[in-house]
Amino acid sequence: MIHPAVDVETPAHPHPHPPAAAAAQSPVAHRETRRSKKWFYLHSASCVAGFLGRLSFQSLKENPLLGPSSSTLEKMGALDVSKVVDRHQGWRLITCIWLHAGVLHLLANMLGLVIIGIRLEQEFGFVRIGLLYLISGLGGSLLSALFIQSNISVGASGALFGLLGGMLSELITNWTMYANKVAALLTLVVIIVINLAVGILPHVDNFAHIGGFLSGFLLGFVFLIRPQFGWVSQKYAPRGSISTSTQHKFKIYQCILWIISLILLIVGFTVALVMLLRGVDANEHCSWCHYLSCVPTSRWSCNSQPVSCLSDQIGDQLTLTCSSNSKTRTYTLTNPTTAQIRGAMFSVLLIMNSQNCMN
């Protein structure tokens, strides 16, 4: 789940008390710049379920998933590339996996974890599936950080897609042990394609999904390899029984896939970490890759260019105009403070963005 961040730009040399005549001729301008047109990261005094106190939710207009504001998520450890690179907060690559945008986001991911994770954990144990889950989540965070650098990101979806990738590679590497293998493969591929297709919607971090899936797919060849039935039968055969031939524990193709996957994992994670810590923006090297995370349509926009509102104050009249759609709103404020001006700007941005999302 992607949340935008907010930057505020003010004039370099503001005039705190301009003369009335000068104010009439040269209105004081304040600029509010947002990095994204996403609509549910704006601060508001109104909360949902305020009786819960500190556990109350942000306004539904700001976060429809019943959760906190983006500033709260950022403080709690959301993935913020600028902080990872400039402030050496690499731990955010891990902590963002356990944060969610809201109750609905959490419930959806936990439902997926129950459906996918229980079966895998019963067959392969807590340690192997736990490592696959954690490393896949890290892989999703790395790919997300390389492509989505102007917003923050939270959620366990990358790790969940890692479990899906592990299921697919487990089916491939243990191919000879399964009955109805073709039907199982087609069913799994359809499920994966549908879930990845959902990622092209706005506000969804599909790069985390793709990175988690690729990591889990390779990890499945390493962690989820099964010994052959012939070797198991031979190992636990009664003493004195005669064996016609010696059975190997793993087939040759399983060993080849294990080696190739391990090499690709080490190289991939190393290259991704080096690129991230050097501040590389992967979008500069792949002009079309942004379509993997959001495809614009007539019903929504994927534009992440800065959106700004210009405020003109003449006397007690404060007029706000948003540059993206030229919508204007006028307020009557006597000697407005900077906080009041910012609050008015946020109100205009709320109206603008909620209308964009309903189109």
Explain what this protein looks like in three dimensions.
Pfam families: Rhomboid. Residues 1-28 are annotated as: Disordered. Its EC number is 3.4.21.105. It is a multi-pass membrane protein. Serine protease involved in intramembrane proteolysis. The protein is an alpha+beta fold. Among the domains are: 102-229 and 250-293, no CATH class; 308-352. It contains twelve helices and nine strands. It has helices spanning 20-25, 70-76, 81-86, 92-95, 103-124, 126-147, 157-173, 181-198, 206-223, 229-235, 252-277, 338-358; strands at residues 2-4, 6-9, 28-34, 47-48, 57-58, 151-153, 307-314, 317-322, 328-332. The strands form three sheets. A five-stranded antiparallel sheet has the order 2-3-7-8-9, with helices on one face. The protein has a two-stranded antiparallel ribbon with strand order 1-6. A two-stranded antiparallel ribbon has the order 4-5. A hairpin with a 5-residue loop joins strand 8 and strand 9. Helix 6 (126-147) packs antiparallel against helix 9 (206-223). The model is unreliable at 6-45 and 350-359 (pLDDT under 50).
Question: What keyword list fits this structure?
Answer:
single chain; 359 residues; alpha+beta; 5-stranded antiparallel beta sheet; two-stranded antiparallel sheet; 9 strands; 48% helix; 11% strand; disordered C terminus
